[in-house]
Amino acid sequence: ASVPAGGLALLLGVLLWAPWRALHGAPVTELSGDQDFQLFLQRNLEFTRKIRGDVAALQRVVCDTLELCKEDELQLVRQELDIAQVPLEQCHKRTFQAETCFSQIRAGLRVYHDSLVTIKALLPEHAGLVQTLQLDTANLSSNIQQQMEDLGLATVTYPTENQDPHPTFSSHFHHQVGGFFILANFQRFLETAYRALRHLANL
Q: CA 123, CA 121: separation in Å to the nearest integer?
């Protein structure tokens, strides 16, 4: 069974627009019987959870080996770095469109996939985990792309605000702090994506 793109856009607009509790009245009947879509949600909930776990493992390494653990203590240094949170405002606007939201998620995954090169250089002894994380990030993006095509949603090339995935750092300490914030931002990004999938799966 296929899901009308307009119905999906409206449903996801209700779910992804903050706050999350604005779920009442969502037109869920179009999705409730779509087994392929529900299978996509369940599989990628698990996949996103795995990616979040791998990011958390790298965060623990940064904390244990570099003693960079608390974000609030590093805010002053962050101001000197060109490390930005990948935007997801297209998933929260009242004028939500599924194409732009999903495309923005995919654009963000691409940025984080590339920025993990910074982490690999910072933690060479954990290069295998970083490479696995890069592969999983690429696969999650591919899964979303395939689902968009299956639902008949247009693929939109969404700009990534010219964010440089390979920032340069003036010192090794700045490199360390930059890596810390890349992982912290990636974790928040994944939490948003996971929350959206979970609410859809629980309808």
A: 6
**Domain spans of the chain?**
35-69+97-158+166-201
The pLDDT tens digits along the chain (203 residues) read 444 444 444 444 444 433 333 333 333 345 445 778 788 888 988 999 999 999 999 999 999 999 999 888 888 888 888 777 777 776 665 555 556 777 888 888 999 999 999 999 999 999 999 999 999 999 999 998 888 888 777 666 655 544 555 667 888 999 999 999 999 999 999 988 887 777 667 75
Helix (H, G, I), strand (E, B) or coil at 159: coil
Domain 35-69+97-158+166-201, CATH class in plain words: mainly alpha
Report, in angstroms and rounded to the nearest whole number, the Rg of the chain calculated over CA atoms.
Answer: 18
Residue 154 near residue 99 (C-beta atoms within 8 A): yes
Residues whose CB falls within 8 Å of the CB of residue 124, separated by 6 or more in sequence, listed in order: none
Q: At what angle do helices 172-201 and 5-16 cross, to 10 degrees?
A: 120
Nearest by Cα to 111 from 54, 42, 176, 160: 160
Count the helices and strands in the chain (H runs, E runs): 7, 0
* Residue 137 contacts residue 116 (beta carbons within 8 Å): yes
Q: What are phi and psi of 87, to 5 degrees?
A: -70, 145
- Torsions phi, psi for 109 (to 5 deg): -60, -35
